[in-house]
Amino acid sequence: GLGEVVLLHAGQVGVTRPRPGHADLAGMQKYDFAEARPILERASARETAARVALGRVATNFLSQVAGIEVLSHVVELGGVPAPAGSVPVPGDVPRLDEDPVRCLDPDASAAMVARIDQAHEDGDTLGGVVEVVVHNLPPGLGSHVHWDRRLDSRLAGALMGIQAIKGVEVGDGFELAATPGSLAHDEIVTTDGLLRRVTGRSGGTEGGMSTGEVLRVRAAMKPIATVPRALRTVDVATGEPAVAHHQRSDVCAVPAAGIVAEAMVALVIADAVLEKFGGDSLGETRRNVESYLAALRFV
């Protein structure tokens, strides 16, 4: 069967002690497997390498046809937050890539690294929050009519599809739930003859569509479920209490999750751009974008 093929390829014994927080047990129940190896191998986040590669194609496409730039950074790791209100711009990317945890603030970065070192000593794992930022989006991507074409809905679905992501918010998200309506929305003003929003609480979407302002979306990643200090489980082969199977694991994958999130957002935005502007070549799509922006009644 499939399980035997996977075991033969992996050259490893079967996993009969499913790990809490992983797909192991639910997958075994779903497919009537006697052990978890076929599930854990396919559920692995290793497959996100392909998504990152595709995301790079989407990122290049967006930059070429509309000057849209997509980037990500870590805003919280292991309970250590970065200072609020820091939104990176494309020029910050080299500095983010050089930082060990992809955090803009050097003090917060150092505290995050120290937190990782401590978790490593404790035999534990850490989660955190990443933010993806999109610059130069034209207004009107998405839909206010169709629930499945709303831009924020598509972004949330794409990010929730990343392994270990347990929550998503657009803009100020959950914070807005506790904010009075008079303070929760982005007022519209005229700046240098252009219509602009004073704040960015909505995260660059209103009514399921892009507003033309900076788009911000955050994803919360739970701690890696393969914990060196193994958690309790049951050996399904014997029915006896046991500790979970443990193999190599990282302490924290939050910075890497940011790269995957960046790719997924780029893919969603690229799809929305093609949906809105079409075109059979980069040049045609670029012309369609330029024509749309030039014809906007309110800019």
List the helices and strands and how they pair.
Elements: H1 2-10, H2 24-31, H3 37-43, H4 48-66, E1 69-77, E2 80-81, H5 93-98, H6 106-122, E3 128-135, H7 151-160, E4 165-170, H8 181-184, E5 188-191, E6 194-197, E7 205-206, E8 209-210, E9 215-221, E10 232-235, E11 240-243, H9 254-277, H10 282-295
Antiparallel strand pairs: 1-2, 1-3, 3-9, 4-9, 5-6, 7-8, 10-11
Helix pairs in contact: 4-9, 4-10, 7-9
Walk me through this protein's architecture.
The longest helix has 24 residues, at 254-277. A five-stranded antiparallel sheet has the order 2-1-3-9-4. The chain has a two-stranded antiparallel ribbon with strand order 5-6. With 299 residues, it is of the alpha+beta class. The termini are far apart. The mean pLDDT is 93. The chain folds into two domains: 1-43, no CATH class; 47-295, Chorismate synthase AroC (Chorismate synthase, AroC fold, 4-Layer Sandwich). It is 39% helix and 17% strand.
Proportion of strand residues: 15-25%
Radius of gyration: 22 Å
Mean pLDDT: 93
CATH topology of the largest domain, anyone?
Answer: Chorismate synthase, AroC fold
Query: Judging from the principal axes of the Cα atoms, what is the shape?
Result: globular
Name given to the CATH architecture of the largest domain: 4-Layer Sandwich
Classified by CATH, the class of the largest domain is: Alpha Beta
How much helical structure, as a percent, in the residues? Answer: 25-40%
Span between termini:
61 Å
Largest sheet: 5 strands, antiparallel
Domain tally: 2
List the total number of helices: 10
SSE pattern: HHHHEEHHEHEHEEEEEEEHH
CATH superfamily of the largest domain: Chorismate synthase AroC
Please give the order of strands in the largest beta sheet. 2-1-3-9-4
Helix-and-strand structural type: alpha+beta
Name the poorly predicted regions. Answer: none
The count of DSSP E runs of length 2 or more, i.e. the number of strands, is: 11
